[in-house]
Amino acid sequence: MTITTDSPLEERLIALLRHLGLERAHFAACMPRDWVGLLSAHKNAVASLTLMCPMGIELAPLSANPPPVLIVTGDQGRGGVEAIRDGKKIAAAELVILENYFSPPWADVIQDRLDSIGDAMGRFIEQNGFGEAKHVTDGASQSGQCAGITYACRGSGEPLLLMPLALSPSQWQPLIEQLSQKFCVITLGGAHLGMVAHLETRAQSSYMRVIDQLLDELQLQPGQSLLEVGCGPGAIVRRLAARTRGANPIVGADVNSYLMAEAKALAKRDGLDGLIDFQPGDATALPFEDNRFDCTISCTVMEEGDADRMLGEFVRVTKPGGKVGSVTRAIDLPRWVNLPLSAPLKAKVDSAALFGGNVTAQGCADASLYQRMNQAGLLDVVTLPSWASHQDGERLEYLRERIIAQLTPAELAEWQGAYERGKADGTFFVSEPFHCAVGRK
Ligand SMILES: C[S@@+](CC[C@H](N)C(=O)[O-])C[C@H]1O[C@@H](n2cnc3c(N)ncnc32)[C@H](O)[C@@H]1O
User: Fold this and answer.
1) Does the N-terminal or the C-terminal CB of the chain have fewer CB atoms within 10 Å?
2) C-alpha of residue 254 to centroid of ligand 1, in Å
3) What are the pLDDT digits (tens) for 241-266?
4) Which numbered atom of ligand 1 lies nearest the CA of 283?
5) Pocket residues for ligand 1 (CB within 6 Å)?
6) What does the DSSP 8-state code read for residue 359?
7) Running DSSP on this structure, what letter comes out for residue 376?
8) Residue 216: exposed, middle, or buried by beta-carbon count in 10 A (0-12, 13-18, 19+)?
């Protein structure tokens, strides 16, 4: 099997299985993009599928003779409600509901509910064993990279491939010791999987126009330093580093060590290592002295924690006269879905509520950003709400899937006709709104 830069993820996963001497394995994932293609094209390779706090469930590949499925989800928030609703539609699915648990993509679910998840997964995989084992005798020789996917194997038993857990800070780490007592646990990573792939895809879309607007407003001069807090896999700091080529000291900070490791690998891939200093750091207690940076920015981070504390920290580490800028999602504004639909369906698919939720109680994903920036003491706050429009690519597909997952069968039939026409004549696009502001300290 030849893997090229265009090879889809499922072919990469099959190449990895073969590389490891495997025909089948148990899989555990969170994001549909990681498992849908594999299950659609290579169902026999999937002995069982565990969906951990799924960020959406695609029902089609699970409708005809699917493998056994275990769905673990919190019962709070949009993701939990949707996972429970969709899980009940899958005949082969066992549902484990974590009571009183909010499981947005950044939930540290394994760390938070270790015992119940460990027990449920261990039992489920044992019950659905297929009688093939893999033995890892030399831990050091069992990690590497194949087809652009990094892997690390531990333990002996039926192979269990763990795909990344969205933005979870601890990922699967707290559970690996326990699972590796019974199974050969193979942890996967790299730019083609999980939230890294998701955010890299977003960074190839017109989301970057929203970001460019923010960067332009900073008017960064040669020699001035910039901190991006919550840089994730680092698409924004890489973009800036590629433009400034060392003329500006650039620091990327994030609380998630898995994403930081991936960010370093991606910077190296792009020949930018040495131009970006990646540092672990919590936005609510940044490990930097007062007045250190000329500019401090965050992009879709203030949704995930205490927004005012974060802003306070951004202001603290910025020099007097320096700039603080932030982009957040805008769950208080409707989308624009460009299809000729009946008025009720158009209102539903455009509705802010369809994409709402996934914001912590003290987070910010609305126009309160502007007031918060004023209250944080920033001056001359420039307000730049703007839209990212998607006419093609993976981001459009992601948004389309999220919309159709929430339609009734009658709405879906109407949608499908309009969608086919809009796709054929090139007029289908989805625009999503963001709030953005830049102020001076
Ligand atoms: C949606 S991603 C955005 C990544 C990047 N800024 C971009 O726009 O592509 C949110 C990022 O914020 C990080 N994050 C969330 N809470 C944080 C905190 N308290 N301190 C630092 N980083 C945080 C997450 O780990 C994640 O990498």
Assistant:
1) N
2) 6
3) 999 999 999 999 999 999 999 999 99
4) 20
5) 106, 167, 199, 203, 229-232, 235-236, 254-256, 259, 281-284, 299-301, 304-305
6) -
7) T
8) exposed
Q: What is the pTM of this model?
A: 0.93
Express as a percent the part of the chain with pLDDT over 90: 84
Report the residue count for the chain: 441
Alpha-carbon distance of 23 to 31, in angstroms, equals: 23
110 in Cβ contact with 172 (< 8 Å): yes
Cα of 231 vs centre of ligand 1, distance in Å, is 6
Among 195, 288, 304, residue to substitute to test ligand 1 (most atoms within 8 Å of Cβ): 304
Judged against a pLDDT cut of 70, whether residue 138 lies above it is answered with no
pLDDT at 140: 45
> Which one-letter amino acid corresponds to residue 257?
S
Place of tokens 């148990």: 26
Give the chain's domains with CATH numbers. 9-196 (3.40.50), 203-440 (3.40.50.150)
232 C-alpha to center of ligand 1: Å?
Answer: 5
- Per-residue pLDDT reduced to its tens digit, 3-26: 888 899 999 999 999 999 899 999
Structure letter (DSSP) for residue 156: S
Residue 321 backbone zone (phi > 0: left; psi -120 to 50: alpha; other: beta): left
Q: What's the distance, CA 152 to chain centroid?
A: 21
Q: Which of 299, 239, 301 is nearest to 275 (CA)?
A: 239
